[in-house]
């Protein structure tokens, strides 16, 4: 092997390393973008984010007063700290469309568990 072709080989090899590193960077950044996009459209995450927001907290207080401190399912009194937000139309079937305050009721954690994803008429 002449010195010339060894140099060529070394150059090709270093170019290959650069390409591989670039590819790895692109792959990582694509993964990050995908993860961000997923978290934006994940309806459960979207809901949790809303619930932690001022709008969500304010809604919960108002809804608690509107329900006169009672569980929408069993009608028994409910402690504000215990109240969980129930999706009348379940998130799993309706996705982001179920994330609307008019679709929410405050329930005892136990009542919420019992109902699960069954659709109940609370009116
Ligand atoms: Zn209840």
TrEMBL record:
Residues 60-113 form the HNH nuclease domain. GO terms for molecular function: endonuclease activity; nucleic acid binding; zinc ion binding. The keyword Nuclease applies. Gene3D superfamilies: 1.10.30.50. InterPro entries: HNH, HNH_nuc. Keywords: Endonuclease, Hydrolase, Nuclease. It comes from the Bacteria. CDD domains: HNHc. This is HNH endonuclease.
């Amino acid at each position: 092997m002449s010195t010339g072709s060894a140099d060529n080989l070394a150059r090709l090899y270093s170019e290959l390393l650069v390409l591989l590193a670039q590819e790895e960077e692109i792959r990582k950044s694509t993964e990050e973008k995908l993860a961000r996009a997923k978290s934006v459209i994940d309806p459960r995450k979207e809901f949790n984010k809303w619930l932690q927001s001022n709008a969500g907290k304010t809604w919960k207080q108002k809804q608690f007063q509107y329900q006169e401190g009672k569980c929408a399912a069993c009608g028994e009194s409910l402690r504000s700290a215990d109240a969980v937000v129930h999706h009348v139309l379940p998130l799993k079937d309706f996705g982001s469309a179920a994330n609307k305050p008019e679709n929410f009721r405050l329930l005892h954690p136990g009542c919420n568990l019992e109902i699960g994803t069954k659709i109940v008429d609370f009116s």
